[in-house]
């Protein structure tokens, strides 16, 4: 049919040139038809890469927390999944954590880190920021693999003596004292209490809405008694002896806590234990669903773009009925007419696809800059966009092209 | 060359049946120059379309170069139109906004002729109809007579068995019409078979044979009109 070179109805180059010059005759209509495809392909590319970027961000964030990590949260579990209300209850206590640490039945857990986290307005001099305040014990640094860039982390003594000290995450430091400043020795005010900064942690990365660096660590006792006035924990982090005994650790701790909370049926558990894997899976499930949803919306706009192409091609066929009749009278076979009109619609969608890809990449680049996401544009989605845009040209161009090819030459020639 | 036997064509529009051609039979031999005349509604356009393989008869047979046209598919008919028939329309039917050269090359595009050969032959035929200096003029930059000459070049470029002209001078001023008819006469002298529809007696004069149609029948067929030798 359309093969390059030698003997063919019209070689590819010729066909492309002829289609282009026809399309150039009605620039506005051509442009509008292409615009539909640009928007469709562009939004698909942008949203898919956005989804991939946020998935990547979540994964790297969770991975950076440590791989042998188990998290105990108050609130019941539902078949291993994360329930919405988890964390909102007050059933975990410091004594739960102490028991996990000391119980002879628990052999698979290396470190136990009881934590209380809340949000508070933090003031330093003229600067202030709303950030996450974490009440922790020294073991937190081990369990969560935290290191200090300046000064020291919170010590056992700080916890027992309720020393008014704070260790800042790098983002919180930047917000309160400015970039690249060593704030050790300075004071910060949290909920009316003045705390002395004794250290700054090394950046753990992470970005966007869940910044692990935008945090202030204080002794657990300070957070519970001085800042938030509570006597329960929001989480207990556990470091298992090794990756192999994660399940064992989960079971041991679960059993102990059921006993402690005087519950006989695991179904009634007022706490839940997640491994990093669980959280990772849930998080990717959420971002995956979100990505799929957005891509679905984008796909609909692509479909609408395709219908736009079909509409334009139908108008073109009607407008050019006499020309089609003439071409048939001069010996054009159906195949030639179909090829001619299909090539026009494919050129439309392909051009749209090309600009759509550029637009989509640009959008995801801007997102990566302004939302500090990773800039991920997979070659797959670009390749797919090309294939899809060509396919749209063929699918939505097919009906108009066939309509043109099946015109009776004599009817077409008489058409006014 | 052309053999039409007992050919009829009826159109059905709703309940109404219109007879365009009723039992028409004739033969046209190679090298003839035939004019088909008749008032409007006499079936001459229908006959023309059937002869040009643009339309099919309701009954009867049409042989072109010994081949029965009834048995051909749409694509085979397209090939017949491409290779054996040169069309010249009343309204010229050139591609709009397209150069004379490209218009003449169009039938060759559908016949798998190489680009170089297309160009060579298109230039040759445009020269023949006296448009050597109009190769790159687009249709709307040419006068009616010039457009019809482009159409004649296009009709000839595949070296067809017959040249079918449907009111070729219908839209053209009379001085230019005479020029067109001189080209036809010259082509006929060179051996081309020409069938021409016209309702103008003075145009029909150029032909060697005139078939008169009336109400779908052949009213007369012959060369008795010739008062002078051509």
UniProtKB/TrEMBL annotation, chain B:
InterPro entries: AAA+_ATPase, ABC_transporter-like_ATP-bd, ABC_transporter-like_CS, MacB-like_ATP-bd, P-loop_NTPase. GO terms for molecular function: ATP binding; ATP hydrolysis activity; transmembrane transporter activity. GO terms for cellular component: membrane protein complex. Belongs to the ABC transporter superfamily. This is Macrolide ABC transporter ATP-binding protein. Transmembrane segments: none annotated. Keywords: ATP-binding, Nucleotide-binding, Transport.
């Amino acid at each position: 049919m359309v093969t390059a070179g030698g003997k063919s109805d019209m070689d590819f180059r010729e066909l492309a040139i002829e289609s282009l010059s026809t399309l150039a005759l009605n620039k506005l209509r051509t442009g509008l038809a292409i615009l539909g495809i640009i928007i469709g392909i562009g939004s698909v590319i942008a949203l898919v890469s956005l989804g991939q970027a946020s998935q990547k961000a979540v994964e790297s964030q969770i991975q950076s927390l440590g791989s042998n990590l188990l998290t105990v949260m108050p609130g019941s579990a539902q078949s291993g999944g994360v329930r919405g209300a988890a964390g909102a209850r007050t059933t975990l206590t410091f004594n739960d954590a102490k028991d996990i640490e000391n119980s002879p039945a628990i052999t698979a857990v290396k470190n136990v880190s009881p934590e209380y986290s809340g949000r508070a307005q933090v003031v330093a001099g003229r600067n202030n920021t709303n950030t996450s305040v974490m009440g922790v014990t020294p073991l937190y640094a081990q369990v969560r693999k935290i290191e200090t860039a300046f000064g020291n982390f919170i010590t056992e003594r700080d916890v027992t003596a309720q020393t008014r000290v704070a260790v800042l995450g790098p983002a919180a430091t930047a917000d309160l004292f400015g970039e690249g400043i060593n704030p050790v020795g300075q004071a910060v005010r949290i909920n009316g209490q003045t705390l002395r900064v004794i250290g700054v942690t090394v950046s753990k990365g992470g970005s966007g809405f869940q910044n692990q660096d935008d945090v202030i660590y204080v002794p657990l006792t300070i957070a519970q008694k001085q800042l938030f006035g509570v006597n329960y924990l929001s989480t207990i982090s556990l470091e298992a002896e090794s990756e192999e005994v994660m399940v064992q650790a989960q079971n041991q701790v679960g059993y102990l806590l059921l006993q402690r909370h005087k519950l006989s049926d695991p179904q009634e558990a007022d706490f839940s234990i997640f491994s990093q894997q669980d959280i990772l899976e849930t998080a990717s499930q959420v971002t995956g669903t979100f990505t799929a949803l957005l891509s679905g919306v984008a796909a609909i706009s692509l479909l609408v773009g395709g219908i736009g192409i079909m509409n334009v091609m139908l108008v073109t066929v009607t407008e050019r009925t006499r020309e089609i009749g003439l071409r048939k009278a001069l010996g054009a076979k159906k195949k030639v007419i179909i090829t001619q009109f299909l090539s026009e619609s494919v050129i439309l969608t392909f051009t749209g696809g090309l600009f759509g890809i550029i637009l989509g990449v640009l959008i995801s680049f801007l997102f990566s800059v302004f939302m500090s996401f990773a800039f991920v544009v997979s070659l797959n989605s670009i390749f797919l966009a090309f294939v899809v845009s060509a396919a749209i040209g063929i699918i939505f161009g097919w009906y108009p092209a066939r309509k043109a090819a099946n015109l009776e030459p004599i009817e077409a020639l008489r058409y006014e | 060359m052309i053999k039409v036997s007992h050919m009829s064509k009826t159109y059905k529009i709703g309940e109404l049946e219109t007879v365009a051609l009723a039992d028409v039979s004739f033969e046209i031999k190679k090298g003839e120059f035939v004019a088909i005349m008749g008032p409007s509604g006499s079936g001459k356009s229908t006959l023309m379309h059937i002869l040009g393989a643009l339309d099919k008869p309701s009954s009867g047979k049409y042989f072109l170069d010994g081949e029965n046209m009834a048995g051909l598919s749409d694509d085979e008919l397209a090939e017949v139109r491409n290779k054996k028939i040169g069309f010249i329309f009343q309204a010229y039917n050139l591609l709009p906004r397209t150069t004379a050269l490209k218009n003449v090359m169009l039938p060759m595009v559908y016949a798998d002729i190489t680009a170089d050969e297309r160009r060579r032959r298109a230039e040759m035929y445009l020269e023949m109809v006296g448009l050597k200096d109009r190769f790159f003029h687009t249709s709307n930059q040419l006068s009616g007579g010039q457009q019809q000459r482009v159409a004649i070049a296009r009709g000839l470029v595949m070296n067809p068995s017959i040249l079918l002209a449907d009111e070729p001078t219908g839209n053209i001023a009379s001085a230019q019409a005479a020029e067109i008819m001189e080209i036809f006469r010259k082509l006929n002298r060179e051996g081309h078979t020409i069938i021409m529809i016209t309702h103008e007696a003075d145009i029909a004069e150029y032909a060697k044979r005139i078939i008169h149609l009336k109400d779908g029948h052949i009213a007369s067929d012959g060369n008795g009109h010739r008062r002078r030798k051509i």
